[in-house]
Amino acid sequence: MTVPSAPPRRPSSSPAPPPGTAEDRPDRPRLTELRLSAFAGHRRADFPLGPLTLFAGPSGCGKTSALRAYEALARLGGGTPLGEVFPDPLAWVPDRARPDAQGRRGFRIGCTADGPQDPVRLDVAVQAEPSLRIAGERLSVGGLVLLRTALRDPNRRQVEAAWHTGGQTPVTRAALPDDRLGTALLPLRVAGKTDGQRRVLAAAEQMVVALRSVFACDPLPDRMRAPVPAGSGRLLSGCDNLADVLWRTQAECAKRHTQFVAAVRTGCAGPVADVLAEPLTDRAVRAFLDRGDGTRTDCGRLGDGELRYLALALVLFTGPGVLEVDPAGEVPAALQALTVLADNLDRALDPGQRTELLRLAARMCGRGHIRLVGAVSDASWAAGEDGVTVVHLKP
After folding, report:
1. 286 beta partners
2. pLDDT tens-digit readout, 177-205
3. How does pLDDT run across 25-68, given as a tens digit for each residue?
4. Phi, psi (5° rounding) for residue 22?
5. Can you say whether the dihedral through the CA atoms of 157, 160, 164, 170 is positive or negative?
6. Mutual orientation of helices 63-77 and 182-189 as an angle, nearest 10°?
7. pTM of the model
8. Confidence of residue 282 (pLDDT cuts 50, 70, 90)
9. Strands (E), 197-328
10. In the beta sheet, which residues pair with residue 372?
11. Three-state SS for 325?
């Protein structure tokens, strides 16, 4: 695959912290860098990721595509087939990319995961045409390549993989499917009998756990106004079923619900004594604000900014058990961190709402169990807020 030559375009942002020692490495694996070597409008771009990261810039600068790459890596890390992750792969091939001698074009994405082990790097090359395939993958730690795959035979739906073994046989070779992330398959292939194999497994686990539990969220007010059918109580990415989730969460944890109501009080007009949901006679559920004086305001009457603020605040106060995500069930919850991807984070929010939401996000992300990566057109209002990493993009 070939991509057009272009000068490097790196975002201006706060510098990433140096790798820590073994004593101060985090217990929860988390992504600290997103690399878009050749993806949509990005070329040779390295983006630092903190507990709360905002991609900022005008329309067309690549904010949405950066979040899309993050989500794609997360889904691949969870074992989702390549075709489901990229149903329209040509949309992500860099502009003006020319095919090579075999007529191949594609894109390259990657990331770095910090955690109990040394920082782990993952880089993936995807062939978009003539057919969608993983053309190559590399998992490495400190310059040592632990897994390498390559597409050798275009007529076979597999890649040749080699992973670090150590001992008398330094490398193990095998074929892996060309539509799955090899890193996610390693626990099924590596026995873990040698120190080298155990190192491979530890690195793969750190990367996969860091990638899993991602919730892409973009609340759609028009879908949140009407009563909704009672269902699973797990919040959808568009927050369409907000009332159903409130019906569940208002009874699960009184302390968390009280904190949620206090956050809503700062972002909605008028007094707010409570945020509740109630079932209707037709097996539907509606949400409303209790004004504290006997008056109730149906959430369908709230403004777009109020509804988006309410939904995003609810996301920050909940976790994988409430959100429609795929957590790593084999990993204790105390070692996982949920990452929320919020495109158009500040859409329809007034200055007061976005400031309060940012403060809430910084407070919740500072606890370590949740991380937020958002996209905004202008991040000047976030300047000076502790715990916020701002990545400035240009068209």
Report:
1. 278
2. 999 999 999 998 998 888 999 999 999 99
3. 667 899 999 999 999 999 999 999 999 999 999 999 999 999 99
4. -60, -30
5. positive
6. 10
7. 0.89
8. confident
9. 214-216, 228-229, 274-279, 284-290, 296-298
10. 52, 340
11. coil
Give the residue-averaged pLDDT of 129-155: 94
Q: How far is 369 from 388, CA to CA, in rounded Å? A: 16
CA distance 297 to 290: 7
125 within 8 A of 1, measured Cβ to Cβ: yes
34-52 core/surface letters (b: 16 or more CB in 10 A; e: else): bbbbbbbbbbebbbbbbbb
* Cβ(236)–Cβ(316) below 8 Å: no
Nearest in space to 137 (alpha carbons), one of 110, 173, 164: 110
Q: Would you call 29 helix, strand, or coil by DSSP?
A: coil
Do 151 and 176 contact (CB within 8 A), yes or no?
A: no
Look up residue 318 and give its two tokens.
């909940």
Using an 8 Å Cβ cutoff, are 74 and 339 in contact? Answer: yes
Contact in structure between 302 and 294 (CB atoms under 8 Å): no
Residues 6+ apart with CB under 8 A from 328: 208, 209, 212, 213, 336
Q: What is the pLDDT of residue 325?
A: 53
Instruction: Assess contact for 30 and 114: CB atoms under 8 A.
Output: yes
Where b means 16+ CB within 10 Å and e means fewer, 215-229 reads bbbbbbbeebbebbe
Q: Which two tokens stand for residue 156?
A: 């076979």
For 317, the 3-state DSSP assignment is helix
In this structure, are residues 225 and 307 in contact, taking their beta carbons and an 8 Å threshold? yes
